[in-house]
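Handout, section B. The chain below has 660 residues.
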Amino acid sequence: MTEDRLWLEEIEGKRALSWVEEQNKRSVAVLGEDEQYERDLARVLENLESKDRIPYGNLRNKEVNGFWVDADHVRGLVRTLDLADYGEECAEWNVLIDVDALAEEEGENWVYSGTRTLTEEELSLVMLSRGGKDAVVIREFDRRNKQFVENGFFVEEDKSMAAWLDRDTILICTAQDGGRNTDAGYPGSIRLWRRGQKLQEAQVLLECESDDMRCFVYLMHREDGKVNLLGVSHSFYLTTHYHYTSSGIRKLPLPADVIVQDTYRGMLVLELRSEWRGIPGGSAVLYDLERDTAVSFFTPEAHQSLRSVCVSRDSIYLNIIDNVRQGLLRVLQNNDAYTYERITIEGAECVSLFSCDMYSEELLISATGYLTPQALYHMNAQGELRLCYSNREAFDRDGLHVQQHVAISPDGTRIPYTQISRKYLPLDGNTPTLLYGYGGFEISLLPHYDPTVGSLWLERGGCYVIANIRGGGEFGPEWHQAALKENRQKSFDDFYAVALDLQRRGVCNSKTLGIEGGSNGGLLVGACMTQHPESFGAVVCQVPLLDMLRYHKLLAGASWMGEYGNPDLPEERAAIEAYSPYHRLDAEAEYPPILLMTSTRDDRVHPGHARRMAHKMSEQGHDVLYYENTEGGHGMAANMKQRARMSVQIFRFLWKKLAV
């Protein structure tokens, strides 16, 4: 049968946008914008835009660099503050860029996307996107004078990456002005660009093949030395690394699946994803660039994994996941010996390093839990803790309880999941329950305080469940690799096993259980819905991948073949087609009601996935609602008001469909 819905892949196509507008109107009408909607919207916005929430920022040279959004600054403020004043109630922040004022002045829908700063020169490369896309405009900014540099470094919109080599030189990955893109839509070359030089005249240092994922630069400049890494990502998990110096470029003998986390005393801090030189996968390693030697300084136990590494002036800090809870470990090197110190905060369910200063031993440490609002502490070089900020309680947690349970997947694997609900929950199957999952790209779902879930779901009697299924990173690289490519079905089986366990325990039944996921999680819930339609009462599917036979031809899709496989290869296509939600749709099946949500400006996962799925389901007569935000990129929202509106729509949909 000829595919007749490809017109929906025309992102700005007149016919497609007309269809989107009709669907949006219908969804708003069904979900309603009544007085309760307005009350819910106001409450969510109050939490999102509260001026007394934590003003997060990253440390650099005893200064906090943050980005702030509130009701008066919906696009946000780029600002700084001396660390000594951080936490003071009346601290006066130094505003560098008012993004709202900039957008109004230039007539652009700017969304701030980050900066790369050359600290000693107070110069930044500021990244701004139009409407929240992954593609950004790069502009040079003078932090001292608080203005963009006239005739400074400038790159028009692209999925670019840039880093400072020195005040007059940057390394740039972009398809603009003489560059080119890979098949995945990312830059395929690295150029050395000197101030005053036209970009098209910049020296090409490295190029990759069109079927590679992208080129990248990773420049780490510390007081103890500079390390300039160039790389070619062949896929999402396989990379060739190069060391760049004034003498030239040298290919490094590192395993293709290694992750470079940071540098320490001129050495690379590596995370291994598989065994190398006798060191187990999942370990943290120091690699000497000159001697080609590798020494392991941390190997996780079976129930642990390494989440991230941050290096201060003298210490290495490891964020460790231990049985799906996060902890913080300080590592000190003395010659060939290592000492370890666990950093704890009394009463905190999860402790993690939020930011460390490469110029000192100052840290910002986060403490939180499912029912505990996040708090941010400053720890100085003497190890003294100071509470800087804590978020207020956003919902009534009285009577709520957190429990961890285990479901058994069909192959016997134990799958942990966390349930947040009333402590004395009646096990009669009638509690509206929302099961959330992701299960991909080695991303871990860890305890965190969610004001929206708390106020719109938990506080009103709902049960919320997070499934730690394979494909994630909760138990290290092997947990992720167990669900790659032809084994993808294991993620879906794990999620379904959790759903069955919730029903077996009497928490909910097939009519009161809803499932939610976004991006790869959208694929997850789409697959589970089409495989087990009788088991769920509602589905929320956000910015999803759904047509898995075309995903690699759309936007950044080609970069994910290391995760899902290549549908053009017959030996891989069969496994992909077997679970592809779009292709499993059956007009005779009775699917649960589904709310599909995406963004027109998502330039990562093509909105055509959600559009075509909704169109096909609607034609087959299924209960489907579709909402597409016209801004927001992969995050679906360009500002807090849009984010709040979509959250309220989701929970109104769930209460309508799952309440007994």
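Note. DSSP finds twelve helices and 37 strands in the chain. Compare this with the example in section A.
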